[in-house]
Every structure is written in structure tokens, then in C-alpha cells.
Design brief:
The chain is mainly beta and about 90 residues long. About 10% of the residues lie in helices and about 40% in strands.
Length: about 90
């Protein structure tokens, strides 16, 4: 994912906005409605699936939030407002 733009705060990460949320659906154990669990990004114009390392993060993420790739390979999602207030593009 070296084609992703770099951003920095007190650390440097690669990040790109989530452009779509859908795909495979799972039913939550409490019987609630199925929830979308697939996230997609398109930093180079080609849509690709993005998976996080954090349980539940894919369900909480929203289109427009940032998919974040840390230098050690950890994948996460940061809400758009928090990301844009905390990082600046290099």
C-alpha cells in the first residue's frame, strides 16, 4: 500500500478515505439486523477491500472515515473529523 498518501501527527501513517461499505453480511448474536462488514478504499482510483485488525472496527467505520496503515503493518480506521484534526499530509 505504498501508493497511499503519507500523513503525520507525532507519528507517520499511510491513510486514505473509505469509499464504500458493504459486501459480506453477518447476523449479530443478539438477533439484530445483519450489518455490513466490508470496507473499500480507492487511493489509486481502483477500489480495493480493506480489513482492520481490530474486532468490531469494520462495523463501526463509516464511508469518509480514514483507513489507516501504520508502519508496523497494523490496520485501523479513524473517524474523519478526528483524523483531519490530528494529521496533516506530508
Amino acid at each position: 500500500m505504498t501508493d497511499w498518501p503519507e500523513y503525520e501527527s507525532h507519528k507517520v501513517v499511510r491513510a486514505t478515505p473509505i469509499v464504500r461499505k458493504d459486501g459480506g453480511y453477518i447476523a449479530v448474536n443478539n438477533g439484530s439486523d445483519p450489518v455490513p462488514v466490508a470496507l473499500f478504499v480507492a487511493p489509486d482510483g481502483v477500489e480495493k477491500r480493506f480489513e482492520t485488525h481490530e474486532p468490531g472496527m469494520m462495523m463501526r467505520a463509516q464511508v469518509g472515515d480514514y483507513a489507516v496503515l501504520y508502519p508496523d503493518g497494523f490496520r485501523s480506521v479513524c473517524p474523519r473529523k478526528a483524523f483531519e484534526e490530528g494529521y496533516r499530509r506530508k
